Amino acid sequence: DKQPSYKPYQAPVLAPPVDAVPITGKELLTQGSELKNPVSPTPASLERGKALFTTNCAMCHGTSSAERGPVGKKLKPPPPGLDHELLQNLSDAHIYKAISLGFGRMPPFKGKLTQQDRWELVNFLRTRK
Questions:
Q1: What sign does the CA torsion over 88, 91, 97, 103 have?
Q2: Integer Cα distance of 2 and 120 in angstroms
Q3: Could you give the percent of the chain with pLDDT greater than 70?
Q4: Given a cut of 80, is residue 13 above it in pLDDT?
Q5: Which of 2, 26, 60, 104 has the fewest C-beta atoms under 10 angstroms from its C-beta?
Q6: Confidence band for 124, pLDDT divided at 50, 70 and 90
Q7: What whole-number distance in Å separates Cα of residue 81 and Cα of residue 39?
Q8: Average pLDDT, the chain
Q9: How far, CA to CA in Å, does 3 sit from each of 6, 14, 100?
Q10: Residue 36: other Cβ atoms inside 10 A
Q11: What is the Cα–Cα distance from 118 to 100, expressed in whole angstroms?
């Protein structure tokens, strides 16, 4: 009677076990840690970052900074548009930590995206207008 149930054709969202070690090694990340972006913003990295943004972020933040996504429109207050003006004063490490650890209502993506994916997302966010 107390089993989780899912709608037809809906896969369960599986999270890694607590303290699981990812294939890239254990990541030690805290709000106070200083990080340097190890991923150069190559065209391939930016394209991958754009795909990650479309999949994971656009539903709330919107595909353009002018309009929020379908989920973001329902939130009060709506999430920021993540345009260049907002991000220009933030370091890559600050953006990476916000993606990884979450911020406000935004959930953490540390367990959902690899370190490489999160840095590619940072690189893409730097190109948004």
A1: negative
A2: 40
A3: 79
A4: no
A5: 2
A6: very high
A7: 24
A8: 82
A9: 10, 15, 30
A10: 9
A11: 7
- Here the tokens at position 53 are 């943004």
Q: Is 49 exposed, middle or buried (0-12, 13-18, 19+ CB in 10 A)?
A: buried
Three-state secondary structure call for residue 67: strand
Q: Which amino acid is at 70?
A: P
Count of residues in the chain: 129
Least confident of 8-12, 18-22, 39-43: 8-12
CA distance 102 to 29: 12
pLDDT per position as a tens digit, 57-103: 989 988 887 788 889 888 888 888 787 777 888 888 888 988 998 88
**Residues 108, 101 contacting (CB under 8 angstroms):** yes
CA torsion, ordered 112, 117, 121, 124, to nearest 10 deg: -150
Residue with tokens 């935004």: 106
